[in-house]
Amino acid sequence: MDASGSHDANRAYYNAFSEGYESHRGDNDPGGYHDLLDELEAGYVERFGRDGEVLEVGCGTGLVLSRIERFARRAQGVDLSPGMLERARARGLSVVEGSATELPFENESFDVTCSFKVLAHIPDIEKALSEMARVTRPGGTVVAEFYNPLSFRGLAKRLAPAGRVAEGTHEDRVFTRFDTPLDIRRLVPDGMSIVGSRGIRIATPAARLMRIPVARTVFRGAERALCDSPLRFFAGFFVVAMRRAR
Fold first, then answer.
1. Residues 117, 118, 123, 124: is their CA dihedral positive or negative?
2. How many CB atoms lie within 10 A of CB 31?
3. Rounded to 10 degrees, what is the CA torsion of 134, 135, 140, 145?
4. CA-angle at 178, arms to 176 and 182, nearest 5°
5. Whole-structure pTM over 0.85, yes or no?
6. 227, 197 Cβ separation under 8 angstroms
7. Which end of the chain is less packed: N or C, by CB atoms within 10 Å?
8. Which ranges constitute the DSSP H helices of 168-235?
9. Are 48 and 143 in contact (CB under 8 A)?
């Protein structure tokens, strides 16, 4: 396994990751760190996708997609990893296997196309964003999440050793990029314009702190209060909404 960012390398990484992906997510840690991220991500999509047709690119095991399904007329997922998709299908979600750089959907198929914690692992991020724009209808929205180096999380990732995701597999086995909010403006596909942004993980210096009940309450409240504030530009996960021209 390597960190080249190739389809095969990423598929192998996420297939390995899928085995224990939800050990600290979903029903195994309700109200925890990842639960909060899912809540804030899906909540932002809801602003643009309520009662619409929504595609999540890189849906994984379906934790965010299952939230989207609650407010969307149609919720569709696509992912590169069969291991992840197996768990998403077990949730009863509509998902297919496919690559972010070659989405298996017709032009202008969705009102909203979103992606979380995926684009940062794609070397040809411009192609992925162009594909997301292609399958989004005129007047529709692309909601894309980036890893921000100007954050507590960005600092931790630079200084701390790579985390373990499965037996013999660590985070440094997958290609990872960081883009500042200024960098992102240069990645916006032709025919699209930024119409909003949200910051996720602004105040929380380390995810493990949210395993402490009192800290969990404090940080959950802080993240909810700050996600749409000017401090969003210093969030570990910077989410941008881009509108496609009519």
1. negative
2. 12
3. -80
4. 155
5. yes
6. no
7. C
8. 181-185, 213-226
9. yes
Question: 177-230, pLDDT tens digit by residue?
Answer: 999 999 999 999 999 999 999 999 999 998 889 989 999 999 999 999 999 999
Asked if the model's pLDDT at residue 28 lies above 90, the reply is no
pLDDT tens for each residue of 76-120:
999 999 999 999 999 999 999 999 999 999 999 999 999 999 999
Q: Token pair for residue 94?
A: 């509509």
The alpha carbon torsion through 70, 27, 103, 172 (nearest 10 deg) reads 150
Report the distance separating Cα 67 and Cα 77, nearest Å. Answer: 12
Spell out a b/e string for 84-102, using b for 16 or more CB atoms within 10 Å of the CB, else e.
bbebbeeeebebeebbbbe
**How far apart are the C-alpha atoms of 23 and 200, rounded to whole Å?**
21
**What is the C-alpha to C-alpha distance for residues 149 and 19, in angstroms, rounded to an integer?**
28
Tokens of 145: 């999440």
- The rounded distance, in Å, linking the Cα atoms of 219 and 42 is 18
Q: Is 205 exposed, middle or buried (0-12, 13-18, 19+ CB in 10 A)?
A: middle
Give residues with Cβ within 8 angstroms of 110, minimum separation 6: 52, 53, 54, 55, 76, 135, 136, 137, 140
Amino acid in position 77:
G
